Amino acid sequence: MNTLDLLDGTPSVVGTGVALFSDALRAQGVDVTDVDWTPPPAGTSAALARVLADPRRVEANRLAAERMLAAGAELVDVRLASEALDLQPGHFLHAGPPITWERASGPLRGALIGAVLFEGLASGPEEAERKLAAGTFTWEPCHHRGAVGPMAGVVSPSMWVFELTDPSSGRTSWCSLNEGLGKVLRYGAYSEEVVTRLRWMSEVLGPALQSGVRRARDRGAELDMLAIVAQMVQMGDEGHNRNRAGTLMFMRDLLPDILEAGVDPLRLAEVVRFIGGNDHFALNLVMPTCKLITSAAADIPGSTVVTVMARNGTDFGIQVSGTGQQWFTGPAQTPNGMFLGDYGPDDANPDIGDSAITETAGIGGFAMAAAPAIVRFIGGEVGDALTATRLMYQITTAENQRLGVPILDFRGTPTGIDVTKVLGSGVLPQINTGMAGRVAGVGQVGAGLVTPPMECFEGAVQALAAAAPTLG
Amino acid sequence: MSATGTDVHHVEVRRGRYVDSVSLMQVSATVAGTPGVHKAQVAMATELNLDVLTGMGFEIPADAGPNDMVVAVSAESDDAVAAALAVMEDAVASIGRGGGSGDTFGGEPAPRTTRWAVERSGAPLAVVSVPGEHAFAEAMGALDAGSSVLVFSDNVPLEHEVLLKRTAADRGLLVMGPDCGTAIVGGVGLGFANVVRRGPVGVAAASGTGAQQFTSLLHTAGVGVSHCLGLGGRDLSEAVGGLSARAALAALDADPATEVIVVVSKPPHPAVAADLQEYAATLATPVHLVLLGAGQPTITAGVEKVLAELGVDRPAWPTWGVPDEAPRVSGALRGLFAGGTLCDESMLIAAETLGDIRSNIPLRPELALPAGLEHDGHLMIDFGDDTLTQGRPHPMIDPGLRLARLEKEAADPATSVVLLDVVLGHGAHADPAGDLAPAVAAARRTAADAGRELAVVISLCGTDADPQGLEAQAAALAAAGASVFSSNAAATRYAVALVSGGQR
């Protein structure tokens, strides 16, 4: 389009602001599209303008989108976290931005207690808690090592992790193995039952998966997780709160290799029963897949694309391409959703987990239209899910044609959140999430929907403005 | 989480009945809300749910499996249990019936940003009228999406204007404004615009009411307009350097419907005007510059020059209610304007005869009115100036401030002539004379009661095609005792003659 098009024929017009002008245009027979405009948060207009004026922005965001859309994800190994992530005894990873013990939420504390017990670094929960509070151990965000962790996201050296690689960049990402539902470490539970399951996962599940994955790799058949994500989105999963199809496809693809690797049949039966009984098993593969997609967009000067959204149960934090590894945080919100048993809103902890990496990469809440089975989380109707996904196109930079949504005529999922569009539209990213109990040790209490606090995006825009080159 | 001993517990397993977990969480919440029910859970008998049910105090048959649905209710009586089960049946059945709206495929959400609206609609033009500090984001979004943009908003920071116009220049797009009140594109009036016939004259205007005056007079002379592109009042300032003027001239030069181009502007920066003149000389289409300033032709004179070039006879510019013999008055001239350029033009004309005119948009800084906009000599006020429109509509829509000032001038013994502009067209007040005519009559009565003669002169900018009805508006104003002119220059000269004729 150029100025000549403007003067050629009767124009159609977009109207933003005073309705009187749009009305006057309609009275002249002009086709007018009205914008449902709301002002950006107070005090941000100067920074927003500064960022939008950054001459690098358009090209930087185009590049960010191109890289996200080109990224791939193959499962190349299953390894001990101590080796894969260079984790020393007494050092843990956790979800979300950095946090101290004093500010840590119940579920994160519970998960750290459980991990200390699992590692044999304390004789009981009280001792574990005392040592954690005393600074005996250290912890840092999973994202600082290129990893992601669901809910509390606690990874300890003796746990096993999936290792995924993006063949287009050689970049690697990791995630722990999914423990199942209910009273599990990632929801902050740390009872004997929890630790016992973690031990079984280390002794049986991890090695079995490793032998299968290595067998596949040796015969040149790495498991293409992005292909599985593309298929699961077409099969009714959105990849965050629903991973049923993905879990089954993963088993289908890997099982022959585990069999060929000679895993003991009885142990194999335990493994298959465990995975089959947990519809969320694939989430821990979808998350590092998404981490590889978003990492591909990282560190492009001038880019306003979000590369990380993560929560530690206290703070919600984001990272943006143009500002590297800097965190922008605000208070984590409590999800709005439905509860297990007779738990209620008062039992729920504020939002927690690295799993919002799925939305950051363009699935999860952004692919809500693909998952009619979970739309009731947003109030009951399939139409709402379609609207939710359509709304996300307004805050993203690209559409991922490899992840087509059937009911939207296979339109690609909205991909690459742009902080300037979030501020400009007032539309916050839609996140589907689980809910952990507020009290350490309780576990899962429900699931629902949440959005990040606007502060994260305001902070990012201020920092991008400060980093923008001098004009002129 | 254990049930109390006195409750009635009901647990049943429905074999092979599958309903997804989210739906069942909803069903559970509905059942739990039934009167008399203390706890309820309807769930598939997965390992997780069995733990939850056990935790709630229910005993579940050992053979229940993940493909079976468990209904567990704890209530105060058997009747309450029965009621709960009825509610449960209804809730489960309703799952298959779908939503209440019938709009299964959802709606396309309304666009929340200008950028998105342009992307979705493919519109070549966006009109942005949000508060000034936010205009940049919306206008830049329009440019990002590939459309030109008219920024009506005022109070837009100067550096934002320059950035927008540089970006537009890089991308072959046009930014009209900020503070662009008027444009006519492809026959469509944007913002404030008169209804004029289409024709060969292309206008680029760093002036809203200047453009309205110019196009209205052209129309009155029987000549039409191809396009009228607004540039914003600062475009020909030193800081902006005529960025949009060049873009508009280039576009009009390339437009086959445009045979002659006119640039209408408030007093420009001399160097910018010289540059523009140089650029205009390189175009294939002849360009006339109507740049207001001391010793420069008026807008009316500019129109007459273009008419001459087109070989069209100059008409007698219409007037209404102008007496054959002008009354003799003595005192000060007070101009109360809605249009900034009309105010500028009137000050330039009046200053030739009357000398210094005080104003809130003064010709020279030392002529600025103090904060209360009061002075005992000749003065002219632009009520459309940014500082007077903050937080309220433009005086072309909302006459309040101007009417209050008219009343005040009527009571001021120093005031002998009040000069007002009235602007018709799209976007303007639906019936300005409806408010103004009674106010004029009242003002003249106030003065007469005090033993003074108050002359009211009105510059009426409009065409016979404007929705307000030019003749009816003029007639109402003339009937109230005002002398009405279609040319602002003529109105001003008449007002000046009244004052200077009666001068001491």
> Describe the biggest sheet of chain A?
5 strands, mixed
Q: From the alpha carbons, calculate the radius of gyration of chain A and give it in angstroms.
A: 23 Å
Q: Output the radius of gyration of chain B.
A: 35 Å
Overall helicity of chain A? 25-40%
Beta content of chain A: 15-25%
Strand runs of chain A, count: 18
Oligomer: heterodimer
The biggest chain-chain interface is: A-B, 81 and 94 residues
Provide the low-confidence segments of chain A as ranges. none
Q: What is the mean pLDDT of chain A?
A: 94
Query: What is the spatial order of strands in the main beta sheet of chain B?
Result: 13-19-18-17-14-16-15
How far the N terminus sits from the C terminus of chain A, by CA atoms, comes to 26 Å
Tell me about the biggest sheet of chain B? 7 strands, mixed
* Straight-line N-to-C gap of chain B: 99 Å
Shape of chain A: globular
Summary, kept brief:
Chain A has 472 residues and is an alpha+beta fold.
Report on the structure:
The complex is a heterodimer of chains A (472) and B (504). With 472 residues, chain A is of the alpha+beta class. Helix content of chain A is 38%, strand content 19%. Chain A is built from 16 helices and 18 strands. Chain A has helices at residues 3-7, 19-27, 45-52, 57-70, 81-84, 106-118, 125-134, 192-218, 225-234, 244-260, 265-276, 283-295, 357-361, 382-392, 419-425, 454-467, and strands spanning 13-16, 32-34, 74-80, 91-94, 138-141, 147-148, 160-165, 172-176, 223-224, 306-312, 315-320, 328-331, 336-339, 352-353, 396-405, 411-417, 431-436, 444-450. In chain A, the strands form six sheets. A five-stranded mixed sheet of chain A has the order 6-8-7-3-9. The model of chain A has no long low-confidence stretch (mean pLDDT 94). Chain B is an alpha/beta fold. Chain B has a seven-stranded mixed sheet with strand order 13-19-18-17-14-16-15, sandwiched between helices. In chain B, strands 10-9-11-12 form a four-stranded parallel sheet, sandwiched between helices. Chain B has a three-stranded antiparallel sheet with strand order 1-3-2. The radius of gyration of chain B is 35 Å and the shape is elongated. Chain B starts with 7 loop residues before the first strand and ends with a helix. The chains are: A alpha+beta (472), B alpha/beta (504). Chains A and B meet through α1, β1, α2, α3 and α14 of A and α1, α2, α4, β4 and α5 of B.
